[in-house]
TrEMBL record:
Presence of the UniProt keyword Ligase in the record: yes
Swiss-Prot/TrEMBL keywords: Ligase
Group of enzyme by EC: ligase
Name of the protein in question: DNA ligase (ATP)
Entry similarity comment: Belongs to the ATP-dependent DNA ligase family.
Keyword Membrane: no
Domain ATP-dependent DNA ligase family profile stretches: 95-218
Annotated EC: 6.5.1.1
Amino acid sequence: MLAMAGILPGEESEWNYEIKFDGIRAIGYVDDGLRLMSRNDKDITAAWPELAGLASGTPPFVVDGEIVAFDAFGRSSFEALQPRMHQRNVSTIRALAKSVPATYMIFDLLHIGDRSLIGLPYRQRRDLLEQLGLRGSHWQVPPRLHGTGPDMLAESKRVGLEGIICKRLDSPYLPGRRSPLWTKVKNVLDQEVVIVGWKPGTGRREGRIGSLLMAVHDDNGRLVYIGNVGTGWTVRMLDELLAELQPLQRKTATVDAGVPGAVYVEPRLVGEVSFTGWTSEGRLRHPTWRGLRPDKRASEVVREQQPWAD
């Protein structure tokens, strides 16, 4: 179930508030072992060996949560996860699990024993989840926030968090659907983007990527250009991006971007950027690269935030 971007809801008594974590969404299948599945149905269990101890055996259950890494200030950091998201080498994965340890923040219970819980209201699912006592060195159930929505959002901003998630107490779990029954309210804007090409760099970036061309799908499922991003990466990140994009080159334009000298690619890779707003032309204002999202399908990328002009 996916949250919809929006504003704080009314009717405080009908909603619960949780911290919005900045990580990788994963469904956990727990019995005598642990299997982790990403949002695009990829088995990512091997990438997170420190979570294996969550397996308890009896009864088996299925949970939903976010795999996160914390920065020095105790905040979840998507950037900290980037070195781990593309690794396949077992020894490298084990080393990174020690240097950049992950925590599975479990916020929903979908199935236990032979019983599906997705039709139960969120309030009841959450109560059952807390009764499982899932607390370990690399997994936990984050606390529910107590207070008004405006107070919780203000506090999340004060301590440097991304925002909060508002969940209706009577909400069922809707697999694969984006619903306003879960509403994410952010302090910082971010947007998933499909990489549709790049503009070659000049000067110190000669032979590397100067900027990436970004697109999202509109209401008709058509890719539309939303601007370029040229900041937010290291030289190593640029080299890795170029290595992934070069095999995807195509002769025709992926979108109508009108960018002279652009190199277009098949729209397969998904990234994430932060930005300050939308222009009247439908472009992102001041985008900054955050990283690739191998856990997301390009076909799912749509405009997250309601557009506004400034």
